[in-house]
Amino acid sequence: QFPKTDESFDANMELGKEYIRQRKFNYAINTFEKIVNEWGMGDRNPESYILLTMSYSKTDAFLDALDYLRTAVKKAGKIIRYNADYLFEMSKIYYKTQNYNKAVDGFIRMLNIFPDYKLHTDILLYLADALMKVKRYHNAAFFLIEGIYKNRSAVNSGSAENKKKFHTLLLKFTELLMKLDKEQRAVFRRKYENFTDIDKNLTRIKNN
Description:
By secondary structure, this protein is an all-alpha fold. It is 75% helix and 0% strand. It has helices spanning 6-21, 25-38, 47-58, 62-81, 84-96, 100-113, 120-133, 137-151, 160-179, 182-191, 198-206. The radius of gyration is 21 Å and the shape is elongated. The model has no long low-confidence stretch (mean pLDDT 90).
């Protein structure tokens, strides 16, 4: 048992971060829980709330993550908004807990501030699905088509990873088309004529 001193606080913060780097998220949870709840020292460095939130998220305990996210946003919102990894994880938590409008806001912010983020395709997929959940189909299509065109060249010549991205985005766009009625689909056909044939899309995906 460490005493509640500034030195112990700093040591435990670093220990928790190291657990995250090693993907030992349950250990990280125990460490940050001690700082925030047992010691009541979270306000000394509000990032502790973010790291606790992320650790819960990494174990798929999204409801627990959401509880701490509310506190993290109040105490360290600015840190979250300008850190790509934090913002992605927070937006994902909103998505996983069906807070779709907040998820949309977070993922759109990511695209605007961090356009080259390593998980760009994941952002587009989460964002599009969140928009589809609230029936904003045209908005969802816009972001999916952006990703499809970005990875289109990979189909004939490109890495296997980029080909997978293309076909994953195309599958999500095809799922969107299936949700539309005949009139809506006709509008989409005029706007995105190259990718609105459902059978053709599914055959293309199946053959790759």
